[in-house]
Amino acid sequence: MKNFTTVMEQCLQFLPKDKFDVFTGQHNGNRYTKHFTVWNQLSVMLYAQATGKKSLRDIQTGLQVQGNRWYHLGLTSAARSTIGDANNRRSHEIFEKLFYALLERCREFLPRKTFSFKNDLYSLDGSVVDLCLSLFDWAKFRKQKGAIRLHTLFCNTTQVPAFLTITDGKRHEITETRDTWKDWNLPKGSILVFDRGYIDYKWYYDLNEAGIFFVTRAKTTMQYAIEEQQKAVGEGVLKDEIISFVLDDAEESYSKRLRFITYWDEEQGKQYFFLTNNFDLSAKTIADIYKQRWEIETFFRWIKQNLKIKTFLGTSKNAVMTQVWIAMIYYLLLSYIKTQTKTGLSLLELSRVFAEAFFDRISIIDLLSLSPASVSQTLKRTRGSPQPVLF
Questions:
Q1: pTM
Q2: Is 373 left (phi over 0), alpha (psi -120 to 50) or beta?
Q3: How many domains does the chain divide into?
């Protein structure tokens, strides 16, 4: 058997280490540090993500029994107090910047989902992660409840987040969107789909002026004047109308015309009203675009079920932010490796394989080429006798 580096070390090699060092320097991450560097912290937290560790004690114990396999990380200590202190003290912005640097590196290699149109498609939504207010008193949400909110711009074309911010639960989606959308750098002609939680006619106007198409659901109480009645073409399309707002506030915020589509969804047995500034795509395509918004819901469900972002290893704001950003870095790594290896495994299956083999010395390519029946026997041959290390 070839003396490969561990699966974990191969994953770390995908990260832009040079940029990470710059980010660490910008935030003085290694100041007053002799042993447990920011890179060590990242490595340990990625290990915790990959193997599903639920506490700092679990991480410490797991590393103790793998004592002969993590020396290559440069670790001399991984006591739970050391990890906890690093998560509390070192700026989470180091890992936030690393996420975007890795995203930039991965972007050109990720597969592009094709649609009946050439525009890039993005979904916008937020998801709440509940927290205990007595422990996470900074995470305000409701009177007796704490939470953080993940504000996410999901690229349906590449199937990964394109932009992400994390706030306390009280921060409303549209408020965060108004403050950050110009940082998204969406290409002109992109299509953005979102639900009724983002109703803001002034923002709609700004999107239109920036050359961004949007598709959303209209409020049932919206008042408008029909400027033009178009032929309803396509299965389920009941009406296709060109409208303008009639109320002074709405007209002042969005003075241009919009397209109003009435659609019957046979599968759901429900009628929908769609609002868009795209006048070129068919009404049926507009309805299909809105259905694509569910991909961001699938993304939220996946990360909550398979990444460690619902139970936290620390209670400070910085510790929580650090854990979430490193979880998203691991998500990008899985997506990138899935693409580069051309494996037929789903992200869930890939994450489970990595959980079993993270400290094993085997090529990722070889690991993913094994049949399920042969994985266990192959990993046994790669493993020596465990040598526990006491911290």
A1: 0.90
A2: alpha
A3: 2
